[in-house]
Specification:
Length: 321
């Protein structure tokens, strides 16, 4: 059984409150906690007990957010996959939308290891996620839905890649598991072109960007229209990719990071509504865009081994420069 002191979120605690909670960054503050309201049910976590995390170039703080509503069946596995990471400067935030099952009991069980959690009604998943974004004090971040998982060394690999490459956002191998947490699929993406991300083609005409394996620098959030983002119901993940692609190229790494869990009742099952939302903010596809998609299809349909060779050659060229 893992010791409380061995959690990824409890190895680097400090009683010194970070300056980000006291100052404005680009005109926006980092919230210590979500403001009180009549609808707030409960909140807690290390921050409210006077424990914080520090950022440093040597050991950057990485923040993971989980948004959940009535997710008791799968939430604990997700929490454990974050707390049992080998990297030891992790900030974990959970935003519960006012669950009616025993989700809150599970969150309270890990109150001593979660940096901040809050339970209050919201207007949907991305409204809840926008609340989490406001409380992030890490420089690298991601979100992980209830039920989905991280490989134990994922966050260590993510931080290492950011430090070595200087990239702004990255994604790893695409992995899927069943409800028993058994891996049923793993493959290596070819590449994701910024211009085609903005056309909304990935997941429809070309393979999808796996949200569970995607991480980014907090600064990229400046590209979002947050009021628009929190009104989205289905395609908030693609809106993030759309906005980030305006500022930086998505780097693909040959590492297994996140794992998407297949189970009933997922928002991702509502694909028609998902693509309708994407159509509302993506750029219009032209004839040239369709030709570009066709050119990208061939490397994607080639074997996973070929794609690994492609990325290995990119790493070799990058190291030689």
């Amino acid at each position: 059984m893992i010791s409380i002191l061995d959690y990824s979120t409890t190895r680097c605690l400090t009683s010194e409150k970070p300056s980000c909670f006291e100052t404005l960054e680009n005109g926006k503050g980092t919230l210590l906690k979500i403001p009180d309201s009549a609808g707030k049910i409960a909140e807690g976590g290390l921050r409210l007990q006077g424990f914080y995390k520090k950022n440093s170039q040597d050991k950057p703080l990485i923040t993971v957010i989980t948004v959940v509503y009535n997710g008791a069946a799968f939430l604990e596995d997700t929490i454990k996959s974050v707390l049992e990471q080998t990297y030891d400067n992790v900030e974990y935030i959970i935003v519960d939308g006012g669950s009616k099952d025993n989700t809150l009991d599970i969150i309270k069980k890990y109150d001593h290891a979660i940096d901040y959690w809050v339970s209050e009604p919201d207007k949907g998943m991305y409204d809840g996620l926008s609340k989490g974004f406001q409380t992030v004090s890490g420089t690298i971040m991601a979100y992980l839905n209830a039920g989905d998982l991280y490989v134990k060394t994922a966050l260590e690999a993510v931080v290492s890649t950011f430090k070595k490459t200087g990239c702004e956002w990255l994604t790893g191998m695409r992995s899927v598991c069943n409800e028993a947490n058994q891996i049923i699929k793993v493959d290596t993406p070819f590449r994701y072109k910024p211009s085609l991300i903005r056309k909304g083609v990935y997941g429809k005409y070309l393979p999808y960007i796996q949200q569970e394996s995607t991480f980014w620098r907090k600064d990229l959030l400046s590209a979002l229209d947050m009021s628009f983002f929190k009104r989205l119901r289905y395609a908030g993940d693609y809106y993030l990719w759309f906005c980030f692609s305006m500022l930086a190229e998505l780097r693909v790494v040959q590492v297994q990071l996140g794992i998407f869990k297949l189970h009933e009742g997922q928002l991702s099952e509502s694909l028609d509504k998902y693509w309708l939302e994407i159509k509302g903010f993506s750029e219009k596809l032209s004839l040239v865009s369709y030709l570009a998609v066709l050119l990208e299809v061939f490397p994607w349909v080639l074997s996973d081994k070929f794609r690994k060779i492609f990325h290995s050659s990119r790493i070799t060229l990058s190291n030689s420069e």
